[in-house]
Each structure stands twice: as C-alpha cells, then as structure tokens.
C-alpha cells in the first residue's frame, strides 16, 4: 500500500473535522486500537507504572504537540495536545500511531553498504575519506533545528553545501523572498486575522501546513455558515475536499491559475478596487477568460467579492509569481491578515533539487523524504530509521526512530508566529543508531552538539524577554527565572510563542507583472512522496476509512 504525504494530511484534515461533529471516528479508533494490538511485530508492553509524557511529533516539520502514554518506560499510545498553540489537539494518522513505528519490520537495524551488512566504523572511514577528497553536500528535510546547525557547521568548515528539500508550502513563498530579500522560511500567513482567503488549489482543508491549524479555524469561524466570518474561496479544477467545503468553489480549467490571477489583477486596477499601484498584467481579460473557462463577468465578480471583505489573501498551491503579485496588489504583503514576517533571523536555503556539481559525497539527513533521490554520481550516505525501499544509496545508516533522540521543534511552515519546542528522548533504541549530526560530531569533535545548540537557542529566547511560554499555564518569558527554567519547561511539553509578527518589516516592490512560468508538474515529490512505512494503527484506519476516497467531479 502506497500512502502519499498528501493522503496522510487529507486524511487527518478529514478526521479533525469528523471528530468535531460525529462519534463515528471514535468507534473506528477504538476498534482499530484493539485490532492493531495483535499485529505480530508489535511487542506486548511490559507491565509497569503508566505515565504520560509531553512531547512533540518530529516525523515532519509541522511539529504537532503530543502526549505519549508510557507503560513501564515504553510508549503505548500517542494523542494530541489541546493546548498546543498550533496543532490544537490534532495529529495526522502517522503521528497518532507513531509509537508503533519503532517496531516496524522495515526498521533499519544495521549499517548497509551496497545492499550488504556493514559497520559504523566502515561508514565513518568511507565518509572521512570522501570528505577529504572533495566537497560534501548535505540534504536536510527539516531545516531550522539544532541538528540542522550542526550539519551547516560541518559543510561550512568543509567548504561543502547545505541544501534543503522544500515542501510546496515553502515553495509558494519563494516569490516574496525574491522580491523582498526576506527568506521564505521567515514568512507565514496571518490567517487568524484574514477575512477572505482565495486559495488557488492550495489544499487548505485537505492537508496544508499543520493539520489542526486551518481545519480548527475553519470549523470555528466558517463551517456551515451562509455568511461566515472567514470566507474561503477555492479556485480549483476539481471538486476537491477543500472546494467542496469552501464558502465558494470557483471551477477553472486545470493549469490556468496564473491566468486567473492576472485577470483578477487587471479588474482590481481597472475598477480601482485596490489602493495599491501595482504593475499592470499584460494578459487581457478576454484572454484570461478563455484560458480559465470563466466568463469575463465571473472574473469581474470574483475580484469584487475578494475585496468586499478584507484583509484578503491569495494562497498558491506551489511557487506562482502571478499569485504572489496579486497579493502585492491586494496590499496583503507585510500586512495584518496577509503574508507576514514571523522571524528576523531566518536564512535563505538552497533547494535540494538543483544539480550537484563536483560533489564527492552527498549525505541525506533522516528528515529528507525517502523519495528524494539525489541525481548525482557522488557517493550517497543516507540516514533513515526505516527502509523505504530500494534506491541507489551507497550507504544506508540506521537513524534514531520516534522518541529515540533529543531534538528541537522550530516553527512549522505557513504559520505566522515563531514557535519553539523540544522533543526529549524518551526511549532507548534497541540497536545502535546515530543521527547524522551525531555521526559528523564523531568525525569532527570540534562541531557543536545538538544539545549545545538547543541550550544556546533557549538562552537566546530567554535574553530576548519576548513571547510567552504556552503550557498548562501561560507564562511571559520576562517572568522566567533563567534560560535553564525555559529549557526544562520546553522539555516538559511547553511551547514558546513569539509576541507578534514583524509584518511591517516586509516590503515587496514589484516593478512589472511577472512573466508566466510553467506550472509545476502535477506530481512533484510533495504529492508523490509516500511514507516509508506506516504504523499498523494508521494502516487499519487508512484501509477502512472512506476519507481516502478521492472526489471524482472535475471541471472541464
Ligand atoms: S502532521 Fe507531521 S508532525 Fe503532525 S502528527 Fe503528522 S507527522 Fe507528526
């Protein structure tokens, strides 16, 4: 069974909505829990004291808050944390069954080289030799962590390159980075203060960003209302789940999103519906109408509807300069309810899929999606906790599984405020595992450790005296006694949330309407990526849930 990243998020979005309105999912979970205890590869937990530990899911960059039920020191259940400021009690099925993953038959237990068993010593020797002979490229799928800083320190010393596998949400923010100079990783959508969202195919209710964020917001402010406080207009070629539940579905011909953005911009300027003076698109309204399949009147009416309730923001499904330019025209960039700057310290990343010139070795952190295969002749060292299937990796290195290492949780993509959390190591791996940061540290002891970088980040937040520690109670950072107290609280499940975004420090000056770029291929790694393995709980849910069924209706 192949389950994509989007499937998982679609499913969690559906589940989140379902849990709020019907008891059926509870019954399904109950049956599943009983059933999945009988999977042969899941050991029966030892008898012993039961306790609940607070943590965060680190299986993807959304970093949802988790409560982990432990029996005799073993995790036996995972649930969401209602007080978590971003995920708000919601988990996707992968996180929900994550405690089962460490026992999965496809767990990597030994080092492999060219498909044969090898040793950590051989891997160290091979990597040391490769890095002494030429540049190393390191690929990270979860940037901004303490471990990411260790990887970056290594390549800086070695004159190699650090690259990041960017998700579609991050790629959609790339035009603002290009026009403002502010890295996309520092940007987010201030949806909490938006009144109208025009989504150009972005799956806001099908799995976009942290699963609990928009689905909860939509349920509270919009679901079922004729004239909701939050209007979601879904521009989509097919009746997706988001389109089906949105306030308005605007069906257009597939691949014509850029033309619609240009058509809308033309109407906004011609009818003086916006105060911003932006560049005029060269595409005539009649041509936008032909390309989108919408009448010119429908495009005019849509433009008026968008500005009827502001702040309004347009969200692209992927990198689209035309949709970003529409936001500039709407005055939504660097404004409340629009695209905001959440951090002053973020950095710009080199995308992982650019060609690899002269690399002697490529090291993939365990956070890089399994389906990301570097197109290179360099020697490839891949860290992974689970074997996702065959690829052309030279070295396969067992990485820590769920809850087996200390890590931190930086801000999730798309959110508007900076956050920081810590996921402590709660269990010991049953065999020798190393993270890529630890591996590099064993080769170069002068590198900082992940622990050290987490401590430094806590000192940084503490000295900033800004933001709030959100846990069972909210505590302003200014009232904490020390950085150590902050670190202790974060390790117990609290989350630091910054005070406000730096909206005013984001400016995009656009001199001319962007030229159309070819749309992203329909299947990039983000939609084709499949989870290397699934916990049995998720497998059962996935097989039995009707939520996996894709809608059929399509506008042609
Ligand atoms: S969305 Fe990501 S962080 Fe959240 S529960 Fe799922 S895998 Fe974990």
What topology emerges from the helices and strands here?
Elements: H1 5-21, H2 24-36, E1 50-56, E2 65-71, E3 74-80, H3 93-96, E4 112-113, E5 116-117, H4 120-133, E6 136-140, H5 146-158, E7 161-164, H6 168-171, H7 174-180, E8 187-189, E9 196-200, H8 211-221, E10 231-236, H9 241-245, E11 248-251, H10 257-270, H11 285-292, H12 296-308, E12 312-316, H13 321-330, E13 339-341, E14 350-351, E15 361-364, E16 379-384, E17 395-398, E18 407-409, E19 419-423, H14 436-443, H15 450-464, E20 468-470, E21 474-476, H16 483-491, E22 495-497, H17 525-528, H18 536-544
Parallel strand pairs: 6-7, 6-15, 7-14, 9-10, 9-12, 10-11, 15-16, 16-17
Antiparallel strand pairs: 1-2, 2-3, 4-5, 4-17, 8-13, 18-19, 19-22, 20-21, 20-22
Helix pairs in contact: 1-8, 2-18, 5-14, 5-15, 10-11, 10-12, 10-13, 15-16
Bound molecules: iron/sulfur cluster (SF4).
Major sheet, described briefly?
8 strands, mixed
Q: What overall geometry do the principal axes of the alpha carbons give? A: globular
Bound molecules: iron/sulfur cluster
Mean pLDDT score: 85
Spatial strand sequence of the major β-sheet: 5-4-17-16-15-6-7-14
Rounded to an integer in angstroms, the radius of gyration calculated over CA atoms is: 24 Å
Cα end-to-end separation: 30 Å
Tell me the number of strands.
22
Give me the number of helical elements.
Answer: 18
Oligomer status: single chain
Strand content: 15-25%
Amount of helix: 25-40%
Helix/strand-derived category reads: alpha/beta
Low-confidence parts, pLDDT < 50 over ≥5 residues?
8-35, 521-529, 545-556
């Amino acid at each position: 069974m192949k389950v994509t990243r989007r499937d998982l998020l679609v499913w969690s979005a559906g589940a989140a909505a379902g849990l709020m309105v019907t008891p059926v999912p509870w019954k399904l979970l109950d049956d599943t829990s009983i059933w999945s205890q009988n999977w042969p590869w899941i050991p029966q937990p030892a008898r012993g004291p039961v306790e609940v530990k607070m943590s965060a899911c680190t299986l993807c960059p959304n970093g949802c808050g988790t409560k982990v039920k432990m029996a005799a020191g073993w995790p036996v259940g995972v649930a969401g944390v209602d007080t978590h400021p971003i995920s708000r009690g919601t988990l996707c099925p992968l996180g929900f069954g994550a405690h089962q993953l460490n026992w999965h038959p496809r767990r990597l237990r030994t080092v492999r080289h060219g498909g044969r068993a090898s040793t950590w010593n051989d891997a160290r020797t091979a990597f040391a030799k490769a890095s002494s002979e030429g540049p190393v490229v390191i690929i990270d799928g979860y940037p901004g962590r303490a471990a990411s800083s260790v990887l970056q320190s290594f390549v800086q010393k070695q004159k190699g390159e650090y690259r990041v596998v960017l998700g579609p949400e991050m790629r959609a923010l790339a035009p603002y980075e290009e026009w403002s100079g502010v890295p996309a990783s520092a940007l987010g959508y201030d949806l909490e203060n938006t009144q109208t969202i025009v989504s150009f195919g972005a799956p806001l209710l099908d799995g976009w960003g942290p699963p609990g964020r928009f689905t909860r917001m939509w349920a509270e402010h919009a679901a079922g209302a004729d004239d909701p406080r939050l209007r979601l207009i879904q521009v989509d070629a097919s009746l997706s789940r988001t389109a089906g539940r949105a306030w308005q579905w605007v069906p257009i011909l597939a691949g014509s999103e850029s033309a619609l953005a240009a058509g809308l911009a033309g109407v906004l300027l011609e009818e003086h519906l916006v105060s911003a003076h932006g560049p005029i698109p060269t595409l005539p309204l009649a041509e936008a109408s032909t390309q989108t399949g919408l009448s010119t009147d429908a495009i005019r009416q849509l433009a008026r509807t968008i500005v009827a309730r502001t702040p309004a923001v347009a969200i692209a499904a992927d990198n689209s300069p035309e949709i970003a330019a529409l936001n500039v025209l709407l005055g939504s960039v660097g404004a409340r309810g629009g695209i905001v700057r959440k951090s002053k310290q973020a950095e710009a990343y080199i995308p992982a899929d650019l060609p690899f010139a002269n690399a002697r070795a490529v090291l993939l952190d365990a956070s890089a999606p399994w389906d990301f295969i570097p197109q290179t002749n360099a020697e490839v060292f891949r860290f992974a906790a689970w074997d996702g299937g065959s690829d052309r990796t030279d070295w396969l290195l067992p990485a820590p599984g769920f809850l087996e290492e200390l890590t931190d949780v930086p801000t999730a993509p798309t959110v508007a405020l900076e956050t920081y959390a810590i996921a402590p190591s709660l269990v010991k791996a049953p065999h020798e595992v190393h993270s890529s940061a630890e591996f590099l540290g064993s080769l170069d002891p002068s590198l900082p450790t992940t622990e050290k970088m987490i401590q430094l980040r806590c000192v940084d937040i503490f000295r900033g005296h800004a933001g709030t520690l959100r846990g069972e109670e909210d505590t302003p950072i200014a009232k904490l006694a020390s950085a150590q107290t902050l670190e202790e609280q974060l390790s117990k499940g609290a989350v630091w949330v910054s005070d406000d975004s730096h909206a005013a420090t984001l400016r995009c000056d656009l001199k001319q309407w962007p030229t159309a770029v070819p749309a992203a291929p329909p299947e990039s790694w983000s939609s084709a990526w499949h989870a290397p393995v699934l916990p049995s709980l998720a497998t059962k849910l996935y097989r039995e849930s009707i939520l996996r069924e894709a809608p059929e209706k399509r506008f042609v």
